[in-house]
Amino acid sequence: xxxxIPLLILVVFFLITSLRVLNEYERGVIFxxxxxIDPKGPGLIILLPVIDHMVKxxxxxxxxxxxxQDVITRDNVSIKVNAVVYFxxIDPKKAILEVEDYMYxxxxxxxxxxxxxxxxxxxxxxLAHRDMVNEKVQSILDQHAGPWGIKVAxxxxxxxxxxxxxxxxxxxxxxxxxxxxxKVINAEGEFQAASRLAEAAEIIxxxxxALQLRYLQTMREMASESQAATILPIPxxxxxxxxxxxxxxxxxxxxxxxGHAASTATETTTAPNDQA
Length: 276
Known about the structure:
By secondary structure, the protein is an alpha+beta fold. The protein is built from 8 helices and 8 strands. A 3-stranded antiparallel beta sheet has the order 3-2-5. The protein is elongated, with a radius of gyration of 48 Å. The model is unreliable at about 250-275 (pLDDT under 50).
């Protein structure tokens, strides 16, 4: 019985060194005598001591921060751009065999791609069409990292650092644009008001009663605004008759004045004859 103790110890040592547990999000790339076999996991797996060597690979999505990159855009503006890259391993075998360190390789290709893409577009495109830049960087990264068994899910530009001079210039441009819009809106309002006034004048010209109604409405507004004011309404017909009577008198006086001038001229002409 005591002879079985070494065998039992050997079995326990074998189980301790050979049994591995992989989580649901992990896969194990196993090298058996230097040759890779199919990835194992998740769950309990058995490794042959001394013969098998396992490398764990996580299948979860990684969020990699791309540090600040000095970029000169196509319109010769110097800026600093940083981003975040979301990717995950879809083929653990390729991620281990095709590249030495897939995390470092993805970080380096992300930095170079971000600089090249931002350097090929203008500053206005980066600021106004950030989604387009994100999609372009993601497409290039996915194309380069695909042979490594990596899928780039998303790329987002986090921060764009502009020089102070460019910030002041953009602020002046925005202020000038808003002033232009304000002037255009004001001119458009004046045009519409003038058009409405012209239409109102035409309606009042065709219907004189509308002027009387407007007159009464104005009196009502004045009475409601000031309680201490005293309003003496004067009929419009009275004012109109007053102006019409003045015009008629001027027309009537004109022939008389002409006759008086003619008689004066006649007297002036006949006076020298009498003296002669």
